[in-house]
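Hi support team,

I've been running sequence recovery on a batch of backbones for a student project. Most finish fine, but this one hangs at about 90% for roughly twenty minutes before it completes. I'm not sure whether the input is malformed or the queue is just slow. I've pasted the structure tokens below so you can try to reproduce it. Let me know if you need the job ID as well.

Thanks,
M.K.
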């Protein structure tokens, strides 16, 4: 596992509505980890076990039964896996989220 671990958290339960899209599953997972939906998110800095990854894949597949499409979504937007992650846990590495805000030197007008 490369990178500085900031947090090791329990794998969150992901629940989405019946009309949710495939991407909503991942968004719900990331929000359950603590992402606010606005800050920049780097899924490469979120590591979990193969079991958790496969469960996410299966949940997304239920919403969108296209193995190639789901596979590409998971490769490009899903968390990574690492054999060093404890069972039932997710490791959040330094930089997993980067606050989005005013650029340095920008003025905020009130």
């Amino acid at each position: 596992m490369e990178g500085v671990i900031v947090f090791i958290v329990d794998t969150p339960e992901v629940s989405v509505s019946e009309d949710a899209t495939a991407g909503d599953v991942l968004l719900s997972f990331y929000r359950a980890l603590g992402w606010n939906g606005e800050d920049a998110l780097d899924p490469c800095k979120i590591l979990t076990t193969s079991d958790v990854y496969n469960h996410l894949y299966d949940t997304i597949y239920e919403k969108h039964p296209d193995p190639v499409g789901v596979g590409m979504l998971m490769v490009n937007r899903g968390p990574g896996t690492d054999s060093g992650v404890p069972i039932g846990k997710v490791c959040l590495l330094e930089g997993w989220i980067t606050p989005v805000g005013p650029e340095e030197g920008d003025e905020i007008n009130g």
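--
Follow-up from support: It reproduced on our side and the slowdown came from queue contention, not your input. The longest strand covers residues 5-10. No action needed from you.
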